[in-house]
Design brief:
The structure holds 2 protein chains of 2 kinds.
Chain A: E1 7-13, E2 16-22, H1 28-35, E3 54-57, E4 60-63, E5 76-78, H2 91-98, H3 108-121, H4 127-133, H5 145-158
Parallel strand pairs in A: 1-5
Antiparallel strand pairs in A: 1-2, 3-4, 3-5
Helix pairs in contact in A: 2-5
Chain B: E1 2-5, H1 22-26, E2 42-48, E3 54-60, H2 62-65, E4 70-75, H3 76-79, E5 109-110, E6 116-122, H4 125-132, E7 136-141, H5 148-151, E8 167-176, H6 179-185, E9 188-199, E10 208-214, E11 219-224, H7 229-240, E12 247-250, H8 266-278, E13 282-285, H9 288-294, E14 298-309, E15 315-327, H10 340-343, E16 354-363, H11 377-395, H12 399-406, E17 411-414, E18 420-424, H13 426-436, H14 439-451, E19 455-464, H15 472-477, E20 486-492, E21 498-502, H16 511-523, E22 530-533, H17 551-578, E23 585-588, E24 591-594, E25 601-603, H18 604-613, E26 625-631, E27 640-649, E28 656-666, H19 673-692, E29 724-728, H20 745-761, H21 776-788
Parallel strand pairs in B: 1-29, 2-13, 11-12, 15-16, 21-22, 28-29
Antiparallel strand pairs in B: 2-6, 3-5, 3-7, 4-6, 8-16, 9-14, 10-11, 10-13, 14-15, 17-18, 19-27, 20-21, 20-26, 23-24, 24-25, 27-28
The chains are: A alpha+beta, B alpha+beta.
């Protein structure tokens, strides 16, 4: 088997620029985890069903296992590690903690990134809209009930309400 | 969340306190096995058998060795004598158990699709996978057998030498009166064949391991996705021939288990062996497809059930003949699951007078089956609750009245299967559940809806489960390989801060905060002052781990006892400090004072410091303030409850929509209702998924047709209904906290509650039983048949 010719990519992740030579077949999720050491983005399947690897790419949530790393060249990425501001949890992160929206925590980063994108586009969703938004993210622990609750709680908080 | 009946006042217990690990997990700073990267690490890929049953004639690895980046390639022959067989830890007694060899890497024969036949080690995971394609294996395919009913037929393909007719064991339990005799007193005997289909646990984190060996110290460190690191260490030390005290097993953050991370698997043994042989850190994490093909499955029973009944709805006796699919080999706890954890629960919360159960464990060319959330108890409850509804149907009674007729009013109760139920108001909880769910109202709405041609159904499931798995003497009597106790150290540091070392190994349940609540309750310290350590055999004393809803009753029980021992030592020291007699010293909210003089007190923190400065210790009292407890409960615990489910079936599609779901559970004292409710809701969805969506399907050649989330449907947020969870507390007298365990209750109850509801919606059409999962396609077909008929 021939070694692959590597390609140079430059990406901005969580506000920081990175340049690497990567094989064209390298998946974006492996790039994020193995090259950048940002292991908060998880791998839960190999068929793009579970959404554990969801990150924000140029402002939209994507499953980072569905892209090759070279396809992200020149783009801006936000991962779960980049969500805190000034040492404070993002309201969605706070909402997950407050509402017991996680158990094992493995699906959590992907779930939060999906909601981060969704709530920016739809700041006043109803329960059904939240459920539709996260249907591409699988959770085996929570039965989703508290995740939905957390999403609605976060919208209150993000609009400056009390969170309740 | 709501506790509708509270047993007794508490300070810290019963409060919905937020979890300690969440800030780490919501920011992506957890550490799962796949997050571990060590200098010089090599990566493993497994070549897995594409045949369900075949002889391995030869394997040529020469081309694979030439793939760039490949360090080594191994076959089964290379590991013979270097990795012992994968052990079966529950050597079921009195059942003529046959335990055939399960080699970590197959060397002469493969027995299921996905079995490991060769191992590649390479500089990165992509290259390791490249090399798999270059390995050439010459197989001689053999006829495979997949279904239990086929596997025991004469002339069926034989999986193992010395295991005639593929029968792994035959286990029988007769409780109470003789079934034949009691049948003579019955008005009717009703019969039903039921399938409890094979499920795939599907924890969101796949399994994996990282191993590092120091050949100068002889120490092997193994990070592994484990629910029980000490059990892994003990069993792997035997498999690898490495002293137990040279093996350190660490379960870091573990992304769910549901039973699938209890067993010892080939992968851990292989990764550990390679680290020793190659002198480099080794890593392997399975893909999801490999998780489907290489991690245990659950359930998979065919049951033939007979119930002897009276015309007033009384169920006198039950005869059950079960064929339990064990897969190709016997996994760690596998023999005990469809027997001990199943058969002993077949009288459930009912006054049934006779149980006669025989379970035949059968080898097939499928992935090994072991404990999956509930493990045996959901299968038993499913039988009972389906039978209760079938009795109602047979006698034209309300299913609620059939249960009223048969429910044990309250415990303690000596069940005919030999168990002693601990505590509970079974009938009252049943009535409360029906009231909360507005059962009578739904019956009215159902009959009105029927007039409009709508299909609404109401389902009930009352359950009891044996859990808090312990005590040792009973576990040992059934052939369980170890005791079933739990350990704890409660250590108060000189500053008064507390560290708890628990032998339990939570992997998502969030018991760190529950354990802190227990210590705070006992010692009067604040929750912030308690840290909990688990999951590392180098830090924590031997412990049995987390499964069987045992973590809070047994693990928490050990912690409570250790904290009480600390308190009693602290009282002695406090007496010396207060210059009073020990018996005059009162403890209240973290302070010791002389009876009647509460203003002159010493705090637990002051006592802690004094225990280390040690100049004022009473005679015979050692310095330091800590206690170690190995706690072996006197009996199991028995959570019980009633769940009510209301469904509507779409006539056009056969789809099922859950309109209401109410769970009323008595899990004893609730330590943290937020966590407990989380277990109920999540567990309910898993049980609902069995009722409606999930099924592992094999074709006749042994191909798993549902080998990924595309084909095996675990529910999304769209399918998940709202679960209403209520708790009714009656303290279990079997442990110091009065807790019973909550991890599996809902998975046990929800499956029959939903199935009963769906079949209730179809009852007036003459539909008696449909095997799970109740997919729209199945229901639609039945509806069409009935319409045409």
């Amino acid at each position: 088997m021939e070694a692959f010719e590597k390609v140079r990519i430059t990406v901005k992740v969580n506000g920081r620029l990175y340049t690497h030579e990567v094989e064209p077949r390298l998946l974006l999720v492996h790039y994020i985890r193995d090259y950048l050491g940002l292991t908060g983005t998880h791998i839960g399947c190999d068929t793009s069903n579970c959404g554990a690897c969801t990150v924000i790419l140029n402002g939209r949530a994507v499953k980072s296992c569905t892209l090759y790393a070279f396809m992200a060249d020149g783009s801006e990425i936000l991962t779960i590690e980049g969500l805190e501001r000034d040492g404070k949890l993002h309201p969605i992160q706070e909402a997950f903690w407050e509402n017991h929206a996680l158990q094992c925590g493995f699906c959590t980063p992907g779930m939060i990134m999906t909601l981060y994108d969704f709530l920016q586009r739809n700041p006043k969703p109803n329960e059904d809209e939240v459920r539709r938004a996260i249907e591409g993210n699988l959770c085996r622990c929570t039965g989703y009930q508290n995740i939905v609750k957390a999403a609605l709680w976060a919208t209150e908080r993000m609009r400056g309400g009390g969170g309740r | 969340m709501s506790i509708i009946h509270k047993a007794r006042p508490t300070q810290h217990l019963g409060k919905p306190v937020k979890r300690k690990e969440d800030p780490k997990l919501v920011t992506g700073r957890g550490l799962y096995v796949d997050d571990i990267k060590l200098p010089g690490m090599l990566y493993v890929a497994f070549l897995r058998s594409p045949y369900a049953h075949a002889k391995i004639k030869s394997i040529d690895v020469s081309k694979a060795l030439r793939v760039p980046g490949v360090v080594a390639v191994y076959t089964g022959e290379d590991f013979r004598g270097k990795i012992g067989p994968i052990p079966t830890g529950w050597q079921l007694t009195g059942a003529d158990l046959k335990v055939p060899e399960w080699p970590a890497v197959a060397y002469d024969k493969v027995r299921f699709i996905g079995e490991i036949v060769a191992v590649v080690v390479a500089s990165d995971p992509y290259r390791a996978r490249d090399a798999l394609e270059a390995i050439e294996v010459d197989y001689e395919p053999l006829q495979a057998v997949v279904s239990v009913e086929d596997a025991i037929k004469p002339g069926a393909p034989q999986l193992h030498e010395g295991v005639p007719n593929n029968i792994a064991f035959r286990w029988r339990l007769k409780g109470g009166e003789d079934f034949e005799e009691i049948s003579k007193k019955a008005d009717k005997v009703i019969k039903q064949r039921m399938v409890n289909q094979r499920l795939i646990p599907s924890a969101m984190e796949p399994r994996g391991a990282v191993a590092e060996y120091n050949r100068y110290t002889g120490e092997l460190t193994l990070w592994v996705t484990s629910q029980n690191p000490h059990v892994h260490r003990l069993l792997l030390s035997g498999v690898l021939g490495i002293p137990e005290n040279k093996l350190r097993v660490i379960a870091p953050d573990v992304g769910g288990g549901f039973g699938s991370k209890i067993p010892v698997y080939p992968l851990e043994a292989i990764v550990a062996r390679l680290a020793m042989d190659l002198g480099k850190p080794i890593k392997y994490v399975e893909t999801r497809r490999e998780n489907f093909l290489g991690t245990i499955h659950g359930r998979d029973h065919v049951e033939y059930v007979e119930a002897a009944i009276k015309n007033d709805g009384t169920v006198l006796g039950l005869r059950v003949r079960t064929l339990a699919n064990m897969g190709a080999y016997l996994s760690t706890a596998a023999p005990g699951v469809p027997t001990i954890l199943f058969g002993t629960m077949l009288s459930g919360p009912y006054k049934i007078r006779s149980v006669d159960v025989e379970v035949t464990g059968v080898f097939t060319n499928t992935i090994p089956v072991d404990a999956y959330r509930g493990a045996g108890r959901p299968e038993a409850t499913y039988i009972l609750e389906r039978i209760m509804d079938l009795v109602a149907r047979e006698l034209n009674m309300d299913p609620a009245d059939v249960r009223r007729k048969n429910l044990i009013p309250e415990a303690p109760y000596a069940a005919i299967t030999g168990l002693t139920y601990d505590s509970g108001k079974y009938l009252e909880v049943f009535e409360r559940a029906l009231k909360i769910a507005d059962y009578e109202g739904w019956r009215k709405r159902q009959s009105e809806a029927r007039k409009e041609g709508r299909l609404i159904g109401v389902g009930i499931a009352s359950y009891i489960e044996v859990c808090g798995l312990a005590p040792s003497r009973i576990a040992r009597a059934t052939g369980f390989g170890l005791g079933l106790w739990e350990s704890a150290i409660v250590r108060v540091h000189p500053s008064g801060k507390v560290t708890v070392y628990t032998g339990a190994s939570p992997h998502g349940q969030g018991e760190d905060i529950a354990f802190a609540q227990i210590v705070a309750e006992e010692l009067g310290v604040s929750l912030e002052d308690v840290e909990v350590i688990h999951g590392d055999t180098a830090l924590v004393q031997f412990g049995m781990g987390t499964y069987g809803s045992r973590t809070t009753p047994v693990g928490g029980g050990a912690i409570a006892l250790a904290a009480r021992r600390v308190r009693e030592k602290a009282r002695k020291i406090a007496a010396a400090l207060l210059e009073a007699r020990e018996e005059d010293v009162v403890f209240e909210a973290g302070r010791f004072y002389v009876k009647g003089v509460p203003e002159k007190a010493v705090t637990i923190q002051q006592v802690a410091l004094a225990s280390y400065t040690a100049e004022k210790l009473p005679p015979g009292v050692e310095p330091g303030l800590e206690a170690t407890v190995f706690y072996d409960p006197e009996n199991f615990t028995f959570p019980y409850g009633t769940h009510v489910c209301v469904v509507e079936i779409d006539r056009e599609t056969g789809g099922v929509k859950i309109l209401r779901y109410v769970a009323v559970d008595d899990a004893g004292i609730i330590v943290n209702p937020m966590l407990a409710e989380g277990q109920v809701i999540g567990g309910a969805l898993q049980g609902i998924a069995q009722a409606l969506y999930e099924e592992a399907i094999y074709d006749s050649s042994g191909n798993l047709l549902t080998a990924g989330f595309n084909d095996y449907m675990i529910p999304t947020a769209r399918e998940a209904p709202k679960i209403e969870s209520y708790f009714y507390e009656t303290p279990s007298p079997h442990n110091p906290l009065g807790v019973k365990g909550i991890g599996e209750t809902s998975t046990i109850a929800s499956t029959p509650a939903v199935v009963n509801a769906v079949l209730d919606a179809l009852a007036h059409l003459g539909v008696r039983h449909i095997d799970m999962p109740l997919l729209p396609s199945k229901i639609y077909k039945v509806l069409k048949e009935k319409e045409v008929g």
